[in-house]
Structures are given as structure tokens and as C-alpha cells.
Design goal:
single chain; 182 residues; M1 Pyruvate Kinase, Domain 3; 7-stranded mixed β-barrel; 3-stranded antiparallel β-sheet; 4 helices; 13 strands
């Protein structure tokens, strides 16, 4: 098992691009982050609800690696936890390198299952002009684009998570499936 740490937790009860940080958040099995606008059994993404309202919510929890903020800072973009709309910010976990179905044990009790990559949207440029180009990068090895703005997950076991809680990774059985957009 690989391990990392949670550096921040965020939620927002209304639709907004960024989410304020909190001392803790509670993850509810099958629903998402308690008190967050994206919690629910079916799709809560504003745009997708208009044409796919009954599909399962594979985007209950958004996780971003804090190392991305370091990288963006070197390019002149000041970004901090919660500002890109994530619920959980981590350090020391290669979130983008995880296969689909990886389990993340967060703190003492919570468990989430990684469902795929967050698809970056144009609102990122509304937050910081030009930032979207940093989130979508051509990867010649994969002969395609890499999306760098985190992963999405569903909650498998309820629990409260806080900054400084441990993140433990459990990989699914082989063969592994690469992350795709959800």
C-alpha cells in the first residue's frame, strides 16, 4: 500500500467554482460529501443534469494532488486548496497514475473508489485566464491528452476526514484499467 496525506478538505452547499476549506468533512456512503452541492446518488453536475439526470453519480468526491498547485505556481498561477472545486486535497499520492477502481482509505473510516479523471471545463479560465491550457496537456507516449485537474470518486464507506489524515491506496485486481474522463 502507498500512503500520502490529506492537506485540505472543502465543500460548498451551492454551485460555485471554488469550495471553502473546512476543519473536516463527512463522506456519506453512496452519496458524497455531506452538505456539498454535488452529493447524491444520481448526477449532480449542473450541465450533465440537463440531459442525463438519472445516471449514477460517479463524481461524488473530487480529489486533487497538491503537487499540481506547486507546478502551477512555477508557471505564475497562484492556486490553493478548494479553489479548483475539489473536496479533498492530497499530497504524496499519484492520483492521476491510479487505475480505475482504486480504493483510497481516508482517515480512520472513510473509503472512496476512484471512478475516473475530472474533465476540465472552460470555467477554469474564468477563475484564472490561461489556466485551462495547463490542465489539458498533449501526452505523446499515450498519443492523446492528459487531464491534470484531479480524479473523481464515489464513497464506499462513511467517515469524517480532516487535514493531516492519512491516505492509503489499495489497487484493484489485475488487469488494471487506466483512468478515463467521467
Amino acid at each position: 500500500m502507498k500512503a500520502g496525506r490529506i492537506t485540505a478538505v472543502s465543500r460548498n452547499a451551492s454551485y460555485a467554482f471554488s469550495k471553502p476549506n473546512h476543519a473536516s468533512i463527512t463522506l456519506l456512503a453512496g452519496l458524497g460529501v455531506e452538505g456539498d452541492v454535488h452529493a447524491g446518488e444520481t448526477i449532480r453536475h449542473q450541465f450533465r443534469m440537463t440531459y442525463e439526470p438519472d445516471l449514477p453519480n460517479l463524481r461524488q468526491v473530487h480529489l486533487i494532488h497538491e503537487e499540481l498547485f506547486d507546478e502551477l505556481g512555477l508557471k505564475g498561477y497562484e492556486v490553493s486548496a478548494g479553489r479548483l472545486g475539489e473536496n479533498i486535497t492530497t499530497r504524496g499520492v499519484d492520483l492521476l497514475g491510479l487505475p480505475t477502481g482504486s480504493l483510497l482509505r481516508l482517515g480512520a473510516d472513510a473509503v472512496v473508489e476512484v471512478t475516473g479523471l475530472r474533465t476540465p471545463c472552460s470555467k477554469i479560465n474564468d477563475f484564472r485566464a490561461g489556466l485551462l491550457d495547463e490542465m489539458i496537456v498533449w501526452d505523446p507516449l499515450a498519443d492523446g491528452y492528459t487531464f491534470k485537474c484531479g480524479v473523481m470518486a464515489v464513497v464506499r464507506r462513511t467517515g469524517t476526514v480532516r487535514p493531516d489524515d492519512l491516505v492509503e491506496v489499495e489497487l484493484p485486481a489485475l488487469p488494471h484499467r487506466s483512468l478515463e474522463r467521467v
